[in-house]
Amino acid sequence: MAKSPALQSNVGVDYVVVYRYSTADKKAAENTFASLIARLSSVGLETEVRTGDNHSLLIFLRMASEEHMLGEVYRSRVRDWIHGVRTSQPASDTKASLEEDPLIEAERLRIIYQLITNPENEGGAGITPKKGEWENVESVFALHDHVYNKEWIKKWSTQWLLQPEDLDDIRNRMGSKVAIYFAFTQSYFMFLLFPAVIGLGAWALLGHFSPTYAVLASLWSVVFTEYWKHQEHDLAIRWGVRGVTNIDTSRREFRPVKEATDPVTGERQQIFPATTRLQRQILVVPFTIAAVVILGSMIASCFAIEIFISEVYTGPFKGYLVFLPTVLLTTGLPMLTGFLTTLATRLTDYENYETEAQHEQALTSKVFVLNFLTSYLAICLTAFVYVPFGSIVVPYLNVFSIIVRPFASKEEQLHASSKPSHFAINPDRLRKQFIYFTVTAQIVNFAMEVVVPYLKRQGFLKFKQIQSQRAKSGGGAGPFVGADDSPEEKEFLARVRNEAELTVYDVYDDLREMVVQFGYLTMFSVIWPLAPVSFLINNWIELRADAIKICVEMQRPTPWRADSIGPWLDALSFLTWFGSLTMSALVYMFSNDGLGPDGNPSEIKGWGLLLAVFFSEHIYLFARWGVSTAIAKIDSPGRQKVRRDRFLTRQRYFEESLAHTRQLPAVSEGMSTASVTREMLEEQARQGSLTTATSQDRFWSRQRGWKESVQVGRGLIERSLPDEKDVKAAKKEL
């Protein structure tokens, strides 16, 4: 089994375990460390220990023998075959089978990680970082292949589009869960070319709030969502992970109520009643209401304050006070979102799911509610409250005058008249707000995601260099970490210590960002048709920025497998449906003059708005059915591979069964067909299949071979059907 380039560049190290002993007393730390090493060695891992940062140890791991690795590979592939991920049973000679089905780096690292973390009853060491008896185990991570990372970044920065081979390479090194995110973003980027062209044409020729653009954009969102379902199915087959979600990873936090025996299989099962879980899941209703009230109140209050200061208040410091809502949002909203996210996590833990996939699905649905409110509520308030009802709502904003009263020298400067005639809505407010979310916010997010962490990281490294230089020169500091490293290991250990300080990569954070962006496009892009152009540019950069982020700012991801983007696929479908409602409403309200209502709700016909939304939703449902039906009929390499594998499997089993049949006695070996059949039936009769051998003899008494059967059959046909001459004579008599 050949060594991968990553292993060669990392001196053969598969994984690194960071053990921090500063949080326990000396004796307990030593005992836990000894137990950790013994547990790792018991599952076939070889260990080596070096000094880490901040009272920690670095435990380097690798497989002790190639034979043990081959055994784990065989066990993993058999498990895949049992659960239907593999179409054929793995060969018992794993070493020989690797020539046809080679062991990729991601599979090797995943198997070793599971060997470290799986429970002991599943053949693992049961090491759970930061949990239970292993709370001193800070992290378990694989080392980056820096040679590959440099080539990866260089290649992606010099090509316009990613090729299927590029995605295959990510899957081979980082697992299909990360690869399917890049495939989704690449597919989304390619699909954006159509709305970008249509949006550019609508902006130049059709004007604001074009019904034509709204229809095409909504249809595009349906096509993309349904096509992605088709494409991820194809990718799952291409990467050999179709149905991998059936191999659920059990949650250690699961707390069963009782144990029972399955009446069908006879195995012992841990039971948690579905009715009890349903009662706990109902708590998501008050959680959603609380999230809407808390986040909605925060966003609506800041929204109202911003309108009051920017469009009503005329006193001093107006240019500075207008930033007050932004300050409130940037400080208060993350705190509230963090609190609600923690509450969602605890609520999901309380629902007590058996597997990690179920837990992840439930948590993502709750987090999506929070993201929906924080991302889209402000635009909805502007479009559906401020514009149509401005003349009614704005006079009540007098309550916010208390905020700016200390800055006003005269009462008249507040200028908060209660008469609607003193207020005129800002027709550009909605467009400017949407441009902020689609352009400015994207730039800010890129800076916060890539640039700021990079600068912080460089500053931290610089600080460590200064500390080590002071320690070398005897500046009063203690001995710096790495002072006792051997010269040939010095550079390698310094790199490992740096990687140990990096954060863990979560691919769902990047998926959430793409789904939120998709929501802006499918729900509100009719406001500013150039939004798809902005997203097209952003996503080209985002693909490269995410690669840099993984290589530089994050620990190497654990190469988990996935055959879908998971619960975010449901989020895409929901946003597509909701977009059919918002797009039609915006077109109805704003398409007459491109500016929309003037703040007077009498200009809006309620029946007309409801009718537009009603027809738009039903057109969406019909279009979704038509598109999904049409796409389902499209053939693809993945589906061709499934048919080919099924055919080869059927053919192989047929040939095996035929070879087994040919081993039975034959006529050419001196026995007639009748005698062979008679012997078989007599054996069945002795087992109770037929009554007596005598009846069998009478039945087969005239049987001598297949030629005799033909003659008997022809005779029966001749006797049962009249001769042609007889038929003519009978007709003549009649």
Automatic annotation (TrEMBL):
Q: Which GO terms describe its cellular component?
A: cortical endoplasmic reticulum; membrane
Q: Which PANTHER family match?
A: ANOCTAMIN (PTHR12308:SF73)
Record bears the keyword Iron: no
Instruction: Report the protein name in the record.
Output: Calcium-activated chloride channel
| Compartment(s) of residence | Membrane
4Fe-4S listed as a keyword: no
Q: Which UniProt keywords apply?
A: Membrane, Transmembrane, Transmembrane helix
Q: How does it sit in the membrane?
A: Multi-pass membrane protein
Name where it mostly resides. membrane
Q: Which GO terms describe its molecular function?
A: chloride channel activity
Ranges for domain Anoctamin transmembrane come to 170-644
- Top-level lineage group: Eukaryota
One short Pfam name that applies is Anoctamin_N
Question: What are the residue boundaries of the Anoctamin alpha-beta plait domain, all occurrences included?
Answer: 12-137
User: What are the transmembrane regions?
Assistant: 178-206, 212-228, 282-309, 321-347, 368-389, 434-455, 571-591
